[in-house]
Design goal:
about 325 residues; DNA-binding
DNA sequence: CCATTCTATGCAACCGCTTGCATAAACGGC
DNA sequence: GCCGTTTATGCAAGCGGTTGCATAGAATGG
């Protein structure tokens, strides 16, 4: 077994409390004693037991990210990789550990998240991909668990970091309207996610605002490349094919582009395409994808920072909106 | 504060030990008592404190994945996303939690990993991207920490799951040789990684085996798209430009292709390209990328499974090699 | 019917660290 | 030189579980 605080105490000829105070950088401890104890710690290669510490202090310095999809699917989308990058980076800066929780079904998700927090494995949660009917949010609120949302809740005022997805969709759609497109279709992600509802809403508003009486055309699919292909195929089988697509995600857009190329359509001449996220690959596609850069990394970084702030200073929960930007490239 | 085992005990009119035994599914407890206790647990919404439990049992049911790059870079490459997918899935199956540790510099990496294990936050580690001079492996070995490697160690016999990277590179290179290419260059990832050394080795062997006396041409870059572009630019500035590229990673290959298209080279007519990994995007690139499918997901899944097996049965450490497959698409 | 074994449960020590309170020594003021 | 502060450290009771050992009562056997 590894050395305990008692071993250190014995070696340094002090009491365990003193060692504990040295660890905590308590000012009451004299410099000589502290030095003596530190010496003993390195000599014994001592590392404090985090469990014992958490048990006594009621804090773990660990947060968890919950991803509300099955492990099988979650990371197929680069969005999560980017998000994680941002979160990990903030954790590193603040000396927090990061746990991951993924689950496919909603019950399991709630159970797992609650267990981690109530079981005192983590101090708080970051929730990604918020559903419209969010049981988890309600459960966490009921249990007074500190958490921050990536996205926004339809019903509750909670800490969150989000994009203005309605506005994003307006920007993207308006861009196509301005390019003179006549049949602008929207390919949405799953409609049980708030982000999907918001983007659909923005799309609709932009069309209505256009004063050109453009038809609304919304289809739903999953946030995958395959989903994009399939949705595009459905749209293409319509009486009149769209001449522009707003895809709710870059990977969907990738699928769309792939389908279009395979079937001999020119982009953007025949069909213009616009995506969401500005995934790292999007600049490198052929043709390079016009997209809404939502700063996924910042979303992740800020959510972790906010959560840790809440945990440490009990500072009030914020509502942060990360600005997005339309990146015009070759597909429009 | 949430309910403790004592609260449950009081409510159920038994001792804490009995409750503990019910939690552990101890057979000695009578069915009635167990039912009574379970009733009390749900009534109190009881969740055992994982810290107290770990402290007493010396086990956490948590493992960590260490990623030996800075948080900033690690997830730019879809390889890690796929890997994580596999690991998370195995953890879910076996009811383990997953922690993440990322670090840019080697000292920090060792410190962080050791701290997690010696601090009893996790029971074992999965190490990704093994360096040639692996301090971490040696440190872990010295401390008798359970771990499994993704990749292989040059110096130590340890639990690992790997591809036969030498063979992969041979397959890929031979494929180009057979297509009659004359100047086959290899773009490697950082040479301090074992995987890089192995792939270079395979490339060399394949060329030598070709009996056509083909020149060896190796350049090094990072595992990024930008790295691929830059490396290709370097190769193109040579007296004689290569007519085939083996890229040690699909994202590198993507950068190569991008550079080639921009500069008006036809693929594969002028230059053939082959990658490694079969990232999800690779099938969808234009032209679709020929690549070695190394089953990244399986790599992750198996490594977690193996680690948990070791942890639970003290079963001997295995050495697993995941087969790879050459996927021929349009770039060769 | 009593001794013996078995079954189900309780007691209490322990896992390793933190922290409120107590205290001895050092200090300062008069 | 005495007393009230201040300073540095120790004591011991937690934090919330687990588990070896003891034991009361039930079951078994002769």
């Amino acid at each position: 077994m590894s050395a305990t605080i008692r071993d250190v105490a014995t070696l340094a000829n002090v009491s365990p409390s003193t060692v504990s105070r040295v660890i905590a950088n308590n000012q009451a401890i004299s410099l000589e004693t502290a030095a003596k104890v530190r010496g003993a710690m390195v000599r014994l290669n001592y590392v404090p037991n985090a469990n014992a510490r958490s048990l006594a202090k009621h804090r773990t310095k660990t947060i968890a990210l919950t991803i509300a999809r099955s492990a099988e699917e979650a990371f197929a989308n680069p969005f999560f990789a980017e998000l994680l990058r941002g979160i990990a980076s903030a954790c590193q800066q603040r000396d927090y550990k990061l746990m991951l929780s993924m689950s496919s079904n909603s019950d399991w998700e709630v159970k797992d998240a609650l267990q981690m927090v109530k079981g005192k494995q983590v101090d708080g949660l970051i929730l990604s991909s918020v559903r419209a009917d969010d049981f988890l949010v309600e459960a966490l609120l009921a249990e007074q668990v500190p958490f921050v949302l990536i996205g926004r809740s339809l019903k509750h005022h909670v800490a969150m970091v989000n994009n203005d997805n309605i506005d994003c969709a307006i920007q993207g759609t308006r861009h196509l309207v301005e390019r003179g497109r006549q049949r602008i279709a929207f390919i949405s992600g799953p409609r049980d996610l708030v982000v999907s509802l918001d983007r659909i809403e923005g799309y609709r508003r932009a069309l209505r605002a256009s004063s050109r009486n453009l038809p609304e055309l919304v289809v739903e699919t999953s946030f995958t490349t395959a989903g994009g292909r399939e949705a595009m195929a459905r749209l293409a089988s319509l009486a009149e094919m769209p001449d522009a697509i707003v895809a709710a995600d870059d990977v969907i857009a990738l699928g769309v582009i792939h389908w279009l190329k395979e079937h001999g359509f020119a982009i953007p001449a025949d069909v213009a395409v616009i995506g969401f996220n500005d995934d790292p690959m999007s600049a490198f596609m052929q043709p390079a994808l016009t997209t809404l850069r939502i700063s996924t990394y910042a979303l992740g970084f800020e959510s972790a920072r906010m959560l840790i702030d809440m945990l440490e200073n009990q500072s009030p929960s914020e509502q942060l909106v990360i600005p997005a930007e339309l990146i015009v490239r070759q597909t429009t």
